[in-house]
Design goal:
6 helices; alpha/beta; 231 residues
């Protein structure tokens, strides 16, 4: 194979990879954008269901600054946080990623499949993340790990956020949920996280049932949990 042919082949492969990434991104976005109804009727029939009183708050891990009110400093600060969930023939299977547990051992998302999962992406510098943490900790204590598991993924970049900073925040607040560290940015890239906090609700079979971009309150958290516990 001559060099010209190799170049053409590499270009074709690159283009296919880009197309695939865009397709995956668009598919996941459908689960967390306001175009879809807030949760769905399954939540209304759930013991966990309560009237939604969603708080707002959105922050980007790269481009936005946040204040303690839970609002980003850009023009999207007033957007309401929405929780979305829908029954669909083309349900989205959660993608696997590799992160590190509190002791530094490699673990994957799929290690936890078989139990409903609340998957949250956060960082200790993120104001809205810090504000919603007490809700996650409170609700997580109501379930055993066999019933429901909270996976709180700290988006570590080695500069603004480090494992040490994340652990200090968790320990100072005495949080007891499962904390994982995305030191290689595998989780962030896999899910193309645009802003934090971001929360996904994954059922026991590994399907994404609902998602939230931005800070959520306890009521909204319980509604999302209702989707994955009552299937």
């Amino acid at each position: 194979m001559n060099s010209k042919t190799k170049t053409i082949l590499y270009l074709v492969i690159f283009i296919l990879l880009i197309i695939g990434a865009v397709s995956v991104y668009s598919h996941l976005s459908e689960k967390i954008t306001p175009e879809n109804p807030i949760l769905d009727n399954k939540a209304n029939n759930s013991p966990e269901y309560e009237k939604n009183n969603t708080g707002s708050g959105e922050t980007s891990g790269e481009t936005q600054n946040t204040d303690e009110s839970g609002n980003s400093s850009d023009e999207e600060a007033d957007k309401d946080t929405d929780v979305t969930g829908e029954e669909s023939e083309d349900r989205i299977k959660a993608w696997d990623f590799t992160v590190y547990d509190y002791d530094g051992n490699q673990v994957t998302l799929y290690d936890y499949i078989g139990t409903p999962i609340v998957l949250n992406f956060w960082a200790s510098w993120c104001g809205p993340c810090r504000m919603e943490m007490p809700h996650f900790n409170k609700v997580s204590q109501e379930y055993s790990d066999d019933e429901l598991i909270f996976l709180m993924v700290d988006l570590v970049d080695g500069q603004r956020e480090t494992v040490e900073k994340g652990k200090k925040f968790i320990e100072e607040n005495e949080y007891t949920f499962t904390v994982l560290f995305d030191s290689d940015q595998d989780a962030a890239y896999t899910y193309m996280i645009r802003s934090i906090p971001t929360t996904l609700f994954i059922d026991s079979e590994g399907y994404i049932e609902a998602g939230v971009e931005g800070m959520i309150d306890e009521t909204t958290l319980r509604r999302g949990i209702g989707l994955i516990l009552n299937k």
